[in-house]
Hints:
0% strand; mainly alpha; 146 residues; elongated; 434 Repressor (Amino-terminal Domain)
Amino acid sequence: MNRVLSAFIRISENEDIKISQLEKKIGASKGVLSRALSNNSDIQSKWLLSLIENYPQYNIEWLLTGEGKMLRKKEVLSQEPPQKAESAVTNTDKYIKVLEDRIEDLKRTIEDKEYIIQLKSDEIRRLQILLENTTSSAPENLKNVS
């Protein structure tokens, strides 16, 4: 299950509400989260933004990455107005950028591994040919020795 969906489950458990009640609270149609959970599929970012607006006590970093504490500190909540969607979008955009950078790193790693695999395949083919040539000429060598 993806990180964000598991955060939705944890929040519903922490708030002691059902997923359907959470859907209603964030303005999602009935079944939006339930279907995403059962299909292990992604949800639209607007539902994450709505969750952040409706439940400001939850740490955005935890929601997106699973890192840090689930709940924000109470003194921070009392000093700050509830986060608006714009700041949540900025945080989401930053997280997306981090993920995109990671994807590019992984693509480069895959390309490097594919190159190594090609080199190893070429080496295997070369050794197979060498082995075939050695094996096929072996009986002739034995005849010459006799």
